[in-house]
Amino acid sequence: MNYDNIDKQIIEELVEDGRVSYVELAEKVGLSRVAVKARVKNLVDKGIIEKFTVSINSEKIGKKVSAFFEVDVEPKQLQDVAQNLADNPHVASIYQMTGPSTLHMHVLVEDFKKLETFINNELYSVQGIIRVESSVLLKRFKSRTGYKL
Question: Which SMART domains does the protein's record reference (predicted)?
């Protein structure tokens, strides 16, 4: 997709603060408010900007345990297992990874007891799962809130 340096600047400003006004964006990139609004609309229309969202600090809403899982799945059941897990309210994200039908999953829960309950009652009960490996996050150094161009 074609986009220029001004579009890159606009995207970087929106990644930093998705609530920045068109007026502020215009001042930062040296265009009029109307021109910036048109460029943002164009970036959305082209699918370069997929959506505007908010980043939540999970610890501040009581989700103090963050765990990552590598879940190996029977190949024929990959889609069903992925959808089943994606529908779980504790699953923050889930991706299909390279390897033998592997899903990478990020889970947020209140405490270690909830994590144990999730693993034993909600994860292991899903048909089609072959193997599960988990890691608990100790410290976050960087979190993706948008891609820097």
Answer: HTH_ASNC
Residue type for position 126: V
State the distance between the two ends of the chain, measured CA to CA, in whole angstroms. 14
Sheet order of strands, 102-109 included = 91-97, 102-109, 65-73, 129-136
pLDDT digits (tens, 9 = 90+) for 49-102: 998 888 888 889 999 999 999 999 999 999 999 999 999 999 999 999 887 899
Domains of the chain listed by start with CATH number: 5-45 (1.10.10.10), 58-136 (3.30.70.920)
Is the Cβ–Cβ distance between 65 and 108 less than 8 Å?
yes
DSSP string, 89-119: TTEEEEEEETTTTEEEEEEEESSHHHHHHII
Q: Give, in order, the Cα–Cα distances in Å from 68 to each of 25, 41, 53, 95, 126.
A: 36, 35, 22, 11, 17
**Residue 69 has what DSSP assignment?**
E
Q: Which of 53, 70, 52, 54 is nearest to 107 (CA)?
A: 70
